[in-house]
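Suppose a colleague, Dr. K., hands you the sequence of a protein chain of 456 amino acids and asks what its three-dimensional shape might be. Before reaching for any lab equipment, you can write down a predicted structure in token form. Begin with the sequence itself:
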Amino acid sequence: MRISNIMVHRSVLTNIQKSFEDLDDLNYKLSSGRDFRFPGDDPVAATDSMRLRTNLTKQEQFQRNITDGLMWMNTVDKTMSDVSSILHRVRTLAVQGANDPYANPDRMAIGYEIDQILQEMVDLGNMNFNNRYVFAGAKTLTKPFEVAYGRDEGQESDLTDCPVGGINADRITRVTYHGNQVGLMREIDEGTKLAVNTVGDDLFFITAHKITMQSEVIRDANITLNSSEAYNGAVGDPSGPTGTGLFRINGYEIFYNAGVDSLADIADRINTAEAGVTASIDSDLSGPRIDRMVLTAKSPSEVWLEDVGGGNLLKKLGFIDESASPNNIYTPSTAKFEEVRISLFDTLIDLRNHLFQAATNEADARAISNQDIQRLNWGLNNLLSHQADLGARVNRFEVMESRQEDYKLHTREVLAETEGADLAETIMDLKLAESIQQAALSSGARLIRPTLMDFL
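The predicted structure, expressed as tokens, is then:
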């Protein structure tokens, strides 16, 4: 086989170029510390590297979620502790006010202090963290507790049995919750989400809310709705409950079939849902042939109701009132049947008024010991339950914080082993490559001799 000069030149140049490429790869490994530059250099290691980096990004996000959640819960815990201290102070004052030896001016003085404590309690209920209200459920930009004063329209402006006229004109006579009952969830691990908030409706209520529908339904009759009153949205997940109508109780969606379901059917649907509410049928309120549904919360909280997607069932049954604010329930001034719902704010208002009126009304003096102190005890027990629940969540967050840090360190170690270059081995390979390059240049210089054309 004849070897031409051109073939020799090409072979020498190719080998020299290959040595330069090897040197470039080794220099990249030393300067970057990575064992490969492109996925094609090591497909298996590149795949593992991308998976590990994805896991590392998730773990860092989980850590940020945990940090944010802990700060949120620490704010809630501090506020709960302040509320607990206030309630213990109020209970002490209530016991003092219930004692017969206390003179009426002393009770008035206690009443004034209770009034100031009431305003402080409202401020605590409207506590915010990072410009977000912590007790408003998911409506963190909405102030959860709004107050009404005696001078407001429709509110009591005076206490009949109080020796001081018009004393309630500039004092809080009602506190209304405007948040919702949705938990703020934080994902702290793959598929693990925990709520970081405590809903103000649950924390500040001391009795289970009980509400009776205001409309009348003939026993066993179907609930008929016009087409415009039925639910206009989708019928939900085909694998789950479906129907032509939809409403929510405490954030849980409940479907029904308009014109088909009876009141008892709707009660069954509510009871099978995990909405924290028990639905019962009462036939003794308006007559033997008239049924009314009664909704009762399973724990100290307010029942939150909402028609969805243009549906009109709850409004038609008389559970919600669009003219009220918030419109999720009928207000006592418009309801035919009084609702049973007592909050800590109601208790403080009643206690203050009983203290103001105890001077001239013995029944108010007795109510302090027979009613107000008992409700304060209920409120303290409910608060203690929420503090215990919050403490358990804080502990779990702290455990997961430590675990995620361990996971992250381990992932980084594995990532370093997967991507990292062996420096000692790379330096030896670099020295060898330099020797090979020098040898290639030296042999090329001997093989490619200068010709007459190089001097022209």
